Amino acid sequence: MTTHGGFEPVFCTIVPPHVLDRLAQAEDTALAGPARRTLERDALERTRRRLTTVVGAASVAPPAGAEPARPHRTVHDARHGTDLPGHPVRAEGDKPGKDATVNRAYAGLGATFELLLKAYQRDSIDGNGLPLNATVHYDREYNNAFWNGEQMVFGDGDGEIFLDFTIPIDVIGHELVHGVTQYTANLTYFGQPGALNESLSDVFGSLIKQYTLGQTTAEADWLIGAGLLAPRVTGKALRSMKEPGTAYDDDVLGKDPQPATMDDYVRTGRDNGGVHINSGIPNHAFYLAATALGGRAWERAGLIWYDVLTGGELKQQATFADFATLTVKAARERFGEAEELDAVSKAWEQVGVRTL
Q1: Does residue 312 surpass a pLDDT of 50?
Q2: CA angle 170, 175, 179 (to 5 degrees)
Q3: Mean per-residue pLDDT for 333-345?
Q4: What does the angle CA 229 – CA 231 – CA 233 come to, to the nearest 5 degrees?
Q5: Given a cut of 70, is residue 11 above it in pLDDT?
Q6: Is the pLDDT at 60 greater than 70, yes or no?
Q7: Within 13 Å of residue 61, how many CA atoms lie on the same side as its CB?
Q8: Number of CB atoms found within 10 A of residue 22's CB
Q9: How many other C-beta atoms can be found within 10 angstroms of the C-beta atom of residue 65?
Q10: b/e sequence 191-224, b meaning 16+ C-beta within 10 Å
Q11: Is residue 18 flagged as an active site residue?
């Protein structure tokens, strides 16, 4: 990709810094060591991303002869190193191999591509057939997964707190949707626009899981990262869209800090102004709107959110109120004065966000 046209790719991880900070202070070195090394690695990758933004990155185009509206996936193996992208181990059309991590990454890339194409007529994350590249087995005991502006990267986890980061398909979708945001609204990664950036990835990550499993809103668990936490952890996921603040409550990890409404909005300078924390508020609004409408969430509520993300009116510095106002407008324009408009309006009212 390039940084032309105003794109400013950011380094986005699925595990928030506040979680790793807490782990890094654990008395047990088996827990603290991997967390500290992950924080150090994330800091380095974040710096590299800033440098790439300044000097520009190479443009990535579909391979010659590639069919439009078809995925172009390549999964690489870092072999526990940190050089990206690593060794190619599965290309588009290759049969599954013996490495389950590689197969899950490949499938997750495909599931994301399929939802974007089938539900929203979008050809890959940039809308123009961008190849989907991923690297697995990154570093040793690396407790994160990230989108670096150009590709996906997955750690294997430490086995104590986090398991393999390719296990939850919504984690894969979450990170890839950061790419969609990068190529569309390009929301600033700080404060409320940063929390919207994170929320949009949670929303569409959840929709990718629901679409893949064929779930209705009532059948979905509305959890982000279910299956990622190791058995010793008292928790069910990284975040809950249904009940923000309830995903985990653990002696080591602490308690899930996400608020569900503006009454509990967290003002902090950490985590880029709380982007992974306050995202619980717009997450909950989407859950409320989707469940009020029922059926398949990607068809109506998801379409409204997608219209706002890609419609060209969402500003880089958008607040929750700005985004909410645009969803109300989008609901009216697409569905008229119908139940969709009512569901969206009430959802934002319930979380305490006023529409302008």
Answers
A1: yes
A2: 130
A3: 98
A4: 60
A5: yes
A6: no
A7: 4
A8: 17
A9: 5
A10: bbbbbbbbbbbbbbbbbbbbbbeebebeebbbbb
A11: no
Catalytic hit among 76, 137, 174, 276: 276
45-55 pLDDT per residue, tens: 888 766 544 34
Q: What is the pLDDT of residue 68?
A: 81
pLDDT tens-digit readout, 247-256: 999 999 999 9
CA 130 to chain centre: 18
Does the predicted TM-score (pTM) go above 0.90? yes
Q: How many CB atoms lie within 10 A of CB 138?
A: 28
Name the active-site residue from 175, 198, 284, 340. 175
Q: Is 276 a catalytic residue?
A: yes
Q: In what order do the strands lie in the sheet with 132-136?
A: 12-13, 145-147, 152-154, 132-136, 73-77, 87-91
**Contact present, 225 and 215 (Cβ < 8 Å):** no
In angstroms, the CA 96 to CA 110 distance is: 13
Q: Which amino acid, residue 46?
A: R
Confidence band for 96, pLDDT divided at 50, 70 and 90 = very high
Task: Take residue 43 and report the two structure tokens written for it.
Answer: 């800091």
Helix runs in the chain, H state only: 17-24, 29-55, 100-120, 169-183, 191-213, 271-274, 280-293, 301-310, 320-335, 339-350
Q: How many CA atoms lie within 13 A of 258 on its CB side?
A: 32
Residue type, 230: A
Residue 172 token pair: 């894969």
